[in-house]
Amino acid sequence: MTTFKEIRGQLIRSVSSDPANPQLGQIWYNNTIGSLKGYQSIGGAISSGGNLNTGRRTLAGAGTQTAGIAIAGGPPSVTDVEEYDGSTWTSATGIPTATQQMAAGGTQAAAIAFGGQVVPPFGVVQNATYEYSGGSWTSGGNMGTGRYNLAGCGTQTASLATGGTTVNPSPPPNFKGRNLTEEYGGTSWTAGGTYPIEVTGIRTAGTQTAALGVGGSQFGAWIVSTVNEYNGASWTSGGSMSQQNTEGGISGIQTAAIYAGGFGGPAAPTSDVRNRIEIYNGTAWTTQPATLTIARSDLAASNQGPTTQTMFFGGPSPTGSSQLTEEWNDPTFGVRTLTTS
Q: What are the residues facing 182 on neighbouring strands?
């Protein structure tokens, strides 16, 4: 026989203060302030992680929130590499060449980094590939076209390199965004499908055969909100971002990605630096209520992380290069005031 308690549902206690350790789904009435409260998901939230030992921007990132890796950066270009264990960054074996604006992929124990430029001297563009074993770096096959500020994703044995900048050093220097895609098979790079636009500052997430290309800028033209999806052979249009954006941090897969920071506006250069966080569901982007603590571009992300758990680190700060690490978790649970309206 059904009891009155079963028909009525949960008993709501009246208390003078919120419980110290509520359980998920617990509801209570705080009679001191006259509010009905509950412990539930409050959506995604940003929290502070451990600081990098060496503050820098234009660095590359890979791995996950609990096993991340920060690679090189600048300015000036550095060789510094650090590993993250979920709370603390520890210095690791440096990359062979001091480089900034590289791209990276893989895990903390099997990372790959490629491209970039050496500064100073200005405009020495790199085509080198370096593979990390968790303790040391070895040289891989050179890219077909060296470039910096390019995008990278995938794994150490199946990577994707997209876009970026090349420089003709003849005076005056001629900078050019590229629409090149190259695929790495573990030993050498081969040409992939051409990206729809010539772009630098683009960011990619996913795998070599299911990648997402987001934003970027075109020299002498516009910062773009363009999003494209790669199937291992060709790029097709995806859902555009709500605003133009370039040089942010990205993590996730083709159908579930998270993008934070960067800068935007109708044209480059611009001072419109962002703290915005957006999530892609495979069709459309949704701006999140939570934001980065400090608006910044040229930051890195743990690019193997899911949209529910990742981190963003480095980038400029008001006084130079940032050591800041910020962790994103979704869902985050907390106390909320409940209403019936």
A: 161, 191
